[in-house]
Write a structure and sequence with these properties.
Helix content: 40-55%
Shape: elongated
Strand order of the largest sheet: 9-6-5-10-11
Structural class: alpha+beta
């Protein structure tokens, strides 16, 4: 330790500027970390050998491999053991969980996937090259991201099924919001543009900081590029494992698009105190604008009528608008057809159009968050010339959702323990043995003796006696 401190001091003194000194220290500390890890791995490898020798294994050779870790590349020399009639093994690799021909540590893969979920693979390549003592190509980062995304999706589908929480111990909340919406990607690698189907639930909104920034309470996001049914299925599994909704008012909201109707929400909720479904106000206004584009004055009146939940006024506005269409207008038939479609849409969804403040609910805000929470996904996967297959988009979206849900690390460690190196018992035993200090033997002092000579002083033994006397 004193030698390292001395070397650090000398490095700082030899630098003309702080920047130059910090760069030199960065290289020095990387080398020190690599040397320490190399020495520790070597000692642990030796501690693993006796167990295999007891089983009849013999040392075959000592191959080396370089593993890129967050501290830099570390060369590991470990023993290969061979036993007649059986396949050779490398105890260190088996104990730690190192896969054959794998060049990057699980932590490197995990961090690369995190960076890649926020920006392009080429940007992730630049960031890793800048911040670490090694480099990764954008194609390698892509492979790592897809692998980890697949792992997270598998964990998301299976983890709730393994939950054994008793019904009485599950979370109880007075109100729960559930929303669903789809995000169509602008460019894909397949004929059909991929779509990210999303379902999100939360317990309300709280305001934090001086700016009173709205933050969702216990928000959870789920997605699928297969179908909206798959997204609802994932949300349903987690709803059941987390909540007891028997005394909860569930408020659902959607734009009414294909796959997001009221029944989809009703099926995943199960038994609850009360279920209130809303048609998203933004999309209702867009529908009115789309159908009444030919009469702006009446369009504005229709929006107000829907906002105040006045069906009689809605019918009067439709009748008035139809009377304002001139019979000699060449598009008169088209306009009347648009009005007919709008009327059918409003009648079909009228119960869901009732405003929040008119429903005697204990909350007055919290709706419309699903579409506003598209941003992490759309920022990563839309525009800027980015193209995704449905599978690739699903893997990246899974990483984004896991990070937002706070389950990213848990998903990796529970599904693939070696991503956080959940070490095997024999490895832990080797570490404990390597850390044990040898027992100090008590000193018995200096032994004093003499060489006995029972022959002449000119004999060889006599000459040796003279040398030590």
């Amino acid at each position: 330790m004193n030698e390292i401190i001395t070397e650090i001091i000398e490095t700082i003194k030899a630098s003309s500027t702080l920047l130059e000194g910090e760069l030199a220290l960065e290289r020095l500390l990387q080398q020190v970390n690599q040397q320490l890890l190399n020495a520790a791995f070597k000692q642990i490898d030796l501690e693993l050998l006796p167990k295999y020798k007891e089983q009849g294994y013999e040392i075959d050779n000592v191959p080396k491999r370089t593993l890129h870790m967050t501290v830099g590349p570390v060369e590991i020399a470990r023993h290969r053991m061979r036993k007649e009639g059986e396949k050779s093994v490398i105890p260190f690799d088996q104990a730690v969980g190192l896969e054959p021909r794998k060049r990057h540590s699980p932590l490197v893969e995990m961090k690369a996937a995190q960076i890649a979920s926020d920006g392009t693979y080429r940007k992730a390549e630049e960031a890793i090259d800048l911040l670490t003592p090694f480099s990764l190509s954008h194609t390698t980062i892509h492979k790592m991201t897809q692998k980890i995304g697949t792992t997270i999706q598998e964990w998301t589908d299976t983890a709730p099924l393994q939950d054994e929480t008793a019904q009485k111990d599950k979370t109880k909340t007075p109100v729960l919001f559930i929303e669903g919406d789809g995000l169509m990607l602008t460019k894909g690698k397949e004929k059909k543009r991929p779509e990210i189907h999303r379902v999100q639930f939360h317990e309300g909104v709280e305001y934090k900081g001086k700016q009173k920034r709205p933050v969702l309470i216990n928000s959870r996001m789920f997605e699928s590029t297969i179908s909206s049914s798959e997204a609802f299925k994932r949300a349903s599994l987690w709803l059941e494992s987390i909540y007891d909704l028997r005394e909860t008012i569930v408020i659902s909201n959607s734009d009414g698009g294909s796959g997001y109707d009221k029944d989809k929400f009703y099926r995943i909720i199960g038994k609850c105190q009360r279920h209130e479904h809303f048609r998203d106000a933004y999309h209702v206004n867009e529908k009115i604008k789309q159908r009444m584009y030919f009469d702006k004055k009446m369009e504005e009146k229709m929006r107000k009528a829907v906002r105040t939940y006045n069906l009689d006024l809605v019918e009067a506005i439709i009748a008035t608008t139809e009377s304002r269409i001139k019979g000699n207008d060449e598009k008169a038939t088209e306009y009347k057809e648009e009005l007919s479609k709008l009327k059918a849409y409003l009648y079909r969804n009228w119960d869901s159009l009732k405003p929040l403040k008119m429903r005697n609910l204990p909350v007055n805000r919290g709706l419309g968050v699903c579409e506003s929470n598209h941003r992490p996904y759309s920022y990563r996967m839309k525009r800027q010339g980015r193209g995704f297959s449905a599978k690739g988009a699903g893997n990246v979206a899974a990483i984004i959702s896991a990070r937002k849900n706070g389950t990213f690390l848990r998903a990796l460690t529970e599904k693939i323990p070696k991503l956080l190196t959940e070490l095997r018992p024999e490895f832990k035993g080797a570490v404990r043995a390597a850390l044990k200090k040898s027992k100090t033997k008590p000193s018995i002092g200096v032994k004093i003796g003499s060489i006995a000579n029972y022959s002449s002083s000119s004999s060889p033994i006599g000459q040796l006696q003279k040398m030590f006397s």
